[in-house]
Amino acid sequence: MEVLQDLRMQVQESPFGYWLGPFSFRLPVSKGATRGDVVNKGREALEIKLGEKLSDFIEVGEVFGGEGREDGEKVLEVVRGESNRI
Fold it and tell me: Which residue in 16, 52, 53, 61 is a FRET match for 80, CA 20 to 30 A apart?
């Protein structure tokens, strides 16, 4: 069982992840879809929507619901977030 937090750690520990700064994951909006469309319902009736930030504690399998793109790839976008200035 892998959650997005595990994937986040892998990205942050990579050489390029250090320079990325704060980020989140989201499902990309594909052709014929609209941002905010519900694509899957995770546990506890959590709706997973296209183009919206995903919780770090969602299981990767729940995000994709067992399905990927037509070519078989499963894609997440990495979206840079705002950092808190000190």
Answer: 61
Tokens of 67: 């399905």
| Cβ atoms of residues 69 and 75 within 8 Å | yes
**Alpha carbon distance 86, 32 (integer Å):** 42
> Which helix H or strand E contains 53, and what residues bound it?
none
pLDDT in tens, 40-74: 766 666 788 888 899 888 888 888 775 555 566 78
Phi/psi at 9 (nearest 5 deg)?
-60, -40
pTM score over 0.85: no
What are 51's two structure tokens? Answer: 């183009």
Pairing of β 77-80 and β 38-41: unpaired
